[in-house]
């Protein structure tokens, strides 16, 4: 990081629009229909429900887009998650989030939107499946670094979820441990489409700071230097998430280093080598290779989700055993 600090003054955050017309990631083949999910929250007919029909039990999370509550339906007693938009939320953003949710569901690795519910502000609240163990971020804080077999199981499911989104031309733009939810059945689902974007045209781009700075890819800050690709940005965030779950801490900054904006941008855009080469990174060569393919700073060289699905780390002969290890891990958290 010493070299990073010396080079901070040379950093410029130019945001020209790159021409993605020839990008091979733009045209992904459609995926076959996903199998039905193995479990989900009780599905009451919530279509005609109002927010007042749900009793707030606890706060599950807060963000710029609103607050997510654990709620209980007053009549059926079924448990859900309910996302209420914040007063500062823009109607256009909420409509976009709703559209992405509806397009992406159903899929076993995407958190389903069960119903939009009119809110007092005139916009819609989102009634969502309740994932009873919370996020991977909270799991990491409770359990510490995750074992590699469990991590391989998680990575494979997230790649399948991202492959589904990308085949629909949806870019998530905020993949991180806090936006990946788990339940006691051992399911893993991508959540929160508040920063997402639907690429309707070949020249659509996602050059903005919407999302979480720490998990943004280099091209989100310097597209001219690193090449730009919205789908590749999701892959970078996935690789950083996997590495964090293995290390037990955010990997791009040193122990105790303050995560201010300047330090993060410099670590992302100017850091030397990949996080897989950090001191104390105890992992197999397969995992290091997987993370390295995700954290390639040149977006054009970064592997796609389709390529990563055939990587030895996730295409393991013991994939059933990896799933079992992950299920055992979450069972201890139940």
Supply database-style keywords.
single chain; 334 residues; alpha+beta; Phosphorylase Kinase, domain 1; Transferase(Phosphotransferase), domain 1; 5-stranded antiparallel β-sheet; two-stranded antiparallel ribbon; 11 helices; disordered N terminus
Characterize the structure shown:
With 334 residues, the protein is an alpha+beta fold. The protein has two domains: 78 residues, Phosphorylase Kinase, domain 1 (2-Layer Sandwich), CATH 3.30.200; 201 residues, Transferase(Phosphotransferase) domain 1 (Transferase(Phosphotransferase), domain 1, Orthogonal Bundle), CATH 1.10.510. Helix content is 34%, strand content 14%. The chain has a five-stranded antiparallel beta sheet with strand order 1-2-3-5-4, with helices on one face. It has a two-stranded antiparallel ribbon with strand order 6-9. The protein has a two-stranded antiparallel sheet with strand order 7-8. It is globular, with a radius of gyration of 20 Å. The N terminus is likely disordered.
Corresponding CATH superfamily of the largest domain: Transferase(Phosphotransferase) domain 1
Percentage of residues in strands: 5-15%
Helix and strand composition category: alpha+beta
* Straight-line N-to-C gap: 39 Å
Count the beta strands. Answer: 9
Rounded mean pLDDT is: 79
The CATH architecture of the largest domain can be named as: Orthogonal Bundle
Number of domains as seen in the coordinates: 2
Rounded to the nearest angstrom, the radius of gyration is 20 Å
Largest sheet, in brief, is:
5 strands, antiparallel
- Report the order of strands and helices: HEEEHEEHHEEEEHHHHHHH
CATH level 1 name of the largest domain = Mainly Alpha
Q: Which outline best applies?
A: globular
The proportion of residues forming helix, as a percent range, comes to: 25-40%
Count of DSSP-assigned helices: 11
Looking at the structure, the CATH topology of the largest domain is: Transferase(Phosphotransferase), domain 1
Strand order of the largest sheet: 1-2-3-5-4
Poorly predicted regions? 1-46, 201-205
